[in-house]
Amino acid sequence: MSYSVLVVDDEVKLCRNISLWLKSEGFITHQAHTGQDAIDLLKREPIDVMILDYMLSDMTGLDVLKKVKEESSNISVIMLTAYGNVESAVNSMKLGAADYLNKPVELAILKEIVAKICENKRVKQENQLLKYQARQNCSQEELIYENKKMKSIFDFLEKVVDTDASILLLGESGVGKTAMAKWIHKRGKRSEKPFVSINCAAIPENLLESELFGYKKGAFTGATETRVGKFESADKGTIFLDEIGEISLSMQAKLLHVIEEKSFMRLGSNTYRKVDVRIISATNKDIKQLVNEGKFRKDLYYRLNLVEVEIPPLRERKEDIPIIIKQSIESLNSKYTKDVSISEDMIQLLSSYEWPGNIREMLNVIERLHILKMNGKIEESDLNRELFYFSENLDQKDDPLFSLSEVNLKKALENVEEQLIKKALEATKGNRSKAADMLGIARHTLVYKIKKIQMGTEK
To answer: What are phi and psi of 172, to 5 degrees?
Structure first.
């Protein structure tokens, strides 16, 4: 891995010589001749090590060092000076300099110091990567909570994770149903066996049966070999049926048979195959309403919800947002080997938004912000470019996101949310159920938001 070094010195010839020497040793190098040039360059380029002159034409090296450490603790700074004394060395080290050298500089010694710093960075990055990989099996951010309702949910689940009871997870899109299903599996007695997930809404009806139960060679045109289905793959483990509310009545009957008889037939076969699985299912729909409307079998509903858990939307657990954001930033730093932080003001602004897409939406926004930030703190100003994606399908002419400096974030986001809702209602000719599906939120959530918009209009 090549490390990037920024040389900052108002002696142009010395700056160039150091830069060329380090470049010949395999480092990526950049040059700056004033403190402000160095600060500006840091906003554009990822820098690992800065070699900084103590006395510059526009400011002191200590001024630059202080600014650098305020923005990013991940940049190692080596101070250089022709005015070497104990006091300046102590001041530099107090502000976070990694080392201190007097001019004239011996290039071999400087290279040795830079190499040692970079080796320490490499070891640290490898350790961060290992920690990140260890966390990857569980979407940790989605399971962080301080909210009392979330605590009661996990306390309750602890009592049933070791059983084979089927569990039905309810909640809006993005609240973390998949993460919770994985958590249940990993905490239970089947944790060493497979966890198999399938999104029932993402697979066409005519293909869902073969996905769930598999098929025999020659069962249909194109079936050139026998294929194992999701249930068979999950044998002795857990199968997670996401968006269970989307399956047809005929498929519901077949699923009920598997639950009751613990057996199934591959498509094209006449032989029943035994299967032992724990079923966790999830939906963002009002499944009781579907039962009442005859769109979901009552007997299947009762089989699936021996244990029923409703996960609250993020807007009802605002106290969790700051810790989720901070954990997400930490995970992303490990993933991308960066040292990005986020300001408290920014966390407060993000906490004020209702997040209709819940944790999934928020984590997506945080990752986009993190990717666009080379180093330093994520601030309110970073939202100017980030939030354009919210309105990519909206009219941009009068969109508040194009003038964020003139409005507050909460109002801007509320305006975007209102426009999205209006667009969805127009596209579905006022059908609230279809509009809710289009927006990826529950119908009752959409109704609540419509009432809120109407109340605001009346004011």
So the answer is: -65, 165
Element (H, E) at 340: strand 340-342
Beta bridge partners of 30: 6
pLDDT on residue 391 = 36
Q: CB of 199 within 8 A of CB of 243?
A: yes
Please state whether 276 falls in left (phi above 0), alpha (psi between -120 and 50) or beta. beta
Residue 132 has pLDDT above 60, yes or no: no
Rounded to whole angstroms, what are the CA distances from 106 to 61, 79, 441? 20, 14, 64
Answer for the pair 410, 436: CB distance below 8 angstroms, yes or no: no
DSSP code per residue over 183-220 = HHHHHSTTTTS-EEEEEGGGS-HHHHHHHHH-B-TTSS
**What would the two tokens of residue 370 be?**
């993190």
All domains of the chain in start order, with CATH: 4-135 (3.40.50.2300), 141-312 (3.40.50.300), 315-458 (1.10.8.60)
Q: What is the pTM of this model?
A: 0.62
Q: Is 50 exposed, middle or buried (0-12, 13-18, 19+ CB in 10 A)?
A: buried
